[in-house]
């Protein structure tokens, strides 16, 4: 078993899975949860194990407080110390705000934001015990600038930014850093129902004139995990949105 452990929420696919690969390649034990994608989670476990990582993974719906807490308890039982928490699990919803109901609100906020609060609280006790830790929250460009037809999603990602900044101030003196990553358009399943016209328009709107990849985000997460003097920041990985 390696010395350092990363815990990633929602890592069966996309950005979370790429973070798992990147951290495994850099000598971390990897703990991750997922919700539906059993097959992908099993495949990722095999992949990470081949990379030499000790892996612990479990199906746990992050929007369900007791499931998420039970998962984190079992991770702590296995690895004893969590060095890095990546609050990544998230879902999107493209809908006019006027058509959104309470169920939509609960779906988006419980998955994208309440999960962050619950996971952070559970992991923080462990980090406080060892007087060190890095928390990396995955926000979104929409949390910074707001996205039409994604009002609830944007609001949940703005909440993540406020949470990150305030938490960094409260726990900095205990040697715990808290930062957020705000990705632009990253090519993953979450964007499967975005039209090719909208994808093209998004790409045209970036200075680099290209879309991002999960590894663009994962490399920054690793950089933040290795950093010693960065906290309370929201760092864009968006190709330069104009
Ligand atoms: P993705 O490819 O759809 O992957 C989402 C991951 O989250 C999956 O592993 C999924 O697991 C997991 N997940 C979803 N709901 C869950 C739940 N209730 N409990 C546990 N796990 C859950 O999306 P992604 O692009 O990698 O997104 C990752 C994060 O980046 C999200 O927070 C998203 O908002 C943020 N982000 C993405 C983009 C982008 O353009 N891709 C841009 C900005 C921000 P299952 O498949 O098992 O359900």
Written description of the protein model:
The protein has 242 residues and is an alpha/beta fold. The protein has a 7-stranded parallel β-sheet with strand order 3-2-1-4-5-6-7, with helices on both faces. The termini are far apart. It contains 8 helices and 7 strands; from the N terminus they run βαβαβαβαβααβααβ. It has helices at residues 14-25, 38-50, 65-79, 102-130, 141-145, 151-171, 196-204, 214-226; strands at 4-8, 28-34, 55-59, 84-87, 133-138, 176-183, 234-237. The structure holds NADP nicotinamide-adenine-dinucleotide phosphate (NAP). Residues 10-16, 33-37, 61-63, 88-91, 111, 138, 140, 183, 185-186, 188-191 line the site of NADP nicotinamide-adenine-dinucleotide phosphate.
CATH architecture: 3-Layer(aba) Sandwich
- Please report the number of helical segments: 8
Stretches where pLDDT falls below 50 for ≥5 residues?
none
Instruction: Tell me the CATH superfamily.
Output: NAD(P)-binding Rossmann-like Domain
Rough outline: globular
Overall structural domain count: 1
Number of strands: 7
In CATH, what is the class? Alpha Beta
The span between the termini is: 45 Å
């Amino acid at each position: 078993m390696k010395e350092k452990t990363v815990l990633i929420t929602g890592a069966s696919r996309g950005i979370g899975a790429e973070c798992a690969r990147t951290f495994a390649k850099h000598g971390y034990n990897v703990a991750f949860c997922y919700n539906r994608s059993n097959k992908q989670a099993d495949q990722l476990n095999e992949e990470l194990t081949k990379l030499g990582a000790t892996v612990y993974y479990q199906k746990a719906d992050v929007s369900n407080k007791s499931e998420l807490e039970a998962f984190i308890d079992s991770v702590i039982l296995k690895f004893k110390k969590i060095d890095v928490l990546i609050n990544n699990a998230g879902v999107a919803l493209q809908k006019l705000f006027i058509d959104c109901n309470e169920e939509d609100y609960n779906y988006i906020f419980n998955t994208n934001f309440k999960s962050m609060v619950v996971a952070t609280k559970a992991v923080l006790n462990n980090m406080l015990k060892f007087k060190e830790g890095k928390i990396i929250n995955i926000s979104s460009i929409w949390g910074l600038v707001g996205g039409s037809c994604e009002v609830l999603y944007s609001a949940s990602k703005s909440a993540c930014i406020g949470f990150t900044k305030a938490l960094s101030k409260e726990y900095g003196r205990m040697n715990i850093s808290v930062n957020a990553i705000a990705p632009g358009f990253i090519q993953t399943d979450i964007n499967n129902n975005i039209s090719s016209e909208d994808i093209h328009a998004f790409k045209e709107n970036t200075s680099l004139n290209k879309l991002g990849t999960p590894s663009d985000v994962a490399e920054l997460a690793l950089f933040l995990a290795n950093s010693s003097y960065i906290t309370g920041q929201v760092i864009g990985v968006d190709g330069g949105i104009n």
